[in-house]
Amino acid sequence: MTENEIFILEDDLTTRAMLKVVLEKAGYQPVFFADGEALIAKSRHASPACILLDLCLPGRSGLDVLGRLTDRTCPAPILMVSGQGDIPTAVHALRIGAADFVEKPFSPADLVARIESAGAGQPVHSAGPLDHFKQSRGLTRRECEVLDHLIAGSSSKAIARKLGISPRTIEDHRARILQKAGVKTTAQLSIMALKDRTAAFGRRTVH
């Protein structure tokens, strides 16, 4: 493993320049790739400290590259980065092998903290983290049901129809779940609920 290298698949030149400054200041060596195939080929012979994949790319998407890397059992933690990611996309990325899902815009300190956390070897994308989250946050049975539907991307009205209760009641449950989790949005909640070390993630905020 190359301890300080971070492989980055990002096509936006402004974001590339920002990442270069932020990561070098944090002691990392960013290595940029023009396309997913080049990154995949390089990863066959080198294992960086971390890999950053932009979700929306020309040609092969970041999720496609993530799938290829995890199929090859790439040992480096992989972070998906996106300014357009919705909840189902974030959940899917975590389940197929991403160590984290970072929403743009993000603060430099937050990104570095995510990279360091991923490098600590936090396991994700299993059935266990969600069950652990429900238990550790003291969710009621109904709140657990609502959480499952929220993570699936269902709206409050759709959840209300499925559970046979009012949308207002769903919103009340959602508010209590967010309060117990210590986050402000459903997107943050969904990502947190699928991570194994919820306490570590809870100290950070998705911007």
**What is Rg?**
18 Å
Helix count equals 11
Q: How many domains comprise the coordinates?
A: 2
- Report the helical percentage: 40-55%
> What is the CATH topology of the largest domain?
Rossmann fold
Q: Helices and strands: which structural class?
A: alpha/beta
Taken from the alpha-carbon principal axes, the silhouette is: elongated
For the report, how would you describe the main beta sheet? Answer: 5 strands, parallel
Oligomeric form of this entry?
A: single chain
Order of helices and strands: EHEHEHEHEHHHHHHH
**Topology, number of strands:** 5
In CATH, the architecture of the largest domain is 3-Layer(aba) Sandwich
Distance linking N and C termini: 30 Å
CATH superfamily of the largest domain: Response regulator
Quick structural overview:
One of its GO terms (molecular function) is DNA binding. The chain is of the alpha/beta class.
Name its key features.
single chain; 207 residues; alpha/beta; Rossmann fold; Arc Repressor Mutant, subunit A; 2 domains; five-stranded parallel beta sheet; 11 helices; 14% strand; disordered C terminus; Sig_transdc_resp-reg_C-effctor
What is the topological layout?
Elements: E1 2-9, H1 13-25, E2 29-33, H2 36-43, E3 48-54, H3 62-71, E4 78-82, H4 87-95, E5 100-103, H5 108-119, H6 127-136, H7 141-151, H8 156-163, H9 167-181, H10 186-193, H11 198-202
Parallel strand pairs: 1-2, 1-3, 3-4, 4-5
Helix pairs in contact: 2-3, 4-10, 7-9, 8-9
Explain what the structure shows.
This protein has helices at residues 13-25, 36-43, 62-71, 87-95, 108-119, 127-136, 141-151, 156-163, 167-181, 186-193, 198-202; strands at 2-9, 29-33, 48-54, 78-82, 100-103. The chain is an alpha/beta fold and 207 residues long. The chain has two domains: 5-118, Rossmann fold; 129-202, Winged helix-like DNA-binding domain superfamily/Winged helix DNA-binding domain (Arc Repressor Mutant, subunit A). Helix 4 (87-95) packs parallel to helix 10 (186-193), helix 7 crosses helix 9 (167-181) and helix 8 crosses helix 9. The model is unreliable at 122-127 and 196-207 (pLDDT under 50). This is Response regulator. Pfam families: GerE (PF00196), Response_reg (PF00072). GO terms for molecular function: DNA binding. One of its GO terms (biological process) is phosphorelay signal transduction system.
